[in-house]
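Reply to dn_fold:

You asked what the input looked like. This is it:
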Amino acid sequence: LGSLTRYDETAVTTDWQKKLTPEQYVVTREKGTELPFTGIYLNNTEPGMYHCVCCDTPLFSSEAKYNSGTGWPSFTQPHGSCGTDEEGTNILRRPDNSLGCTGTEVICRKCDAHLGHVFDDGPPPTGQRFCINSVALTFKPSPK
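and this is what came back:
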């Protein structure tokens, strides 16, 4: 007997290597990091929303973006957060020991894409610094 569910794995599997550029693939699917000060969105100050490059889910508002001086786009909080409550956001946090010390990885809630890391050295009001790779994002300007 086969499974009673009609789950078709081929329908939900995406060929990320065909959909993404090599750099996007390494960062989002293999947890890579773009070189500092090279990202297309590092100095972007236009109002709008940053989306996941893999699944187009909205992740960060330009209103939460700031210049941290670290070389990557930085945000004080994810889009949809309410204070410290991130239940309404499209990101998840995961423990990460790959940096040589304990850190916190930030991934897309919808497709598990690696976005970057979050640190506790950000400005008020959250004290958080979401350090996100530009290649993990697409930007959609606010309508004028």
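The longest strand covers residues 91-96.
Hope that clears it up.
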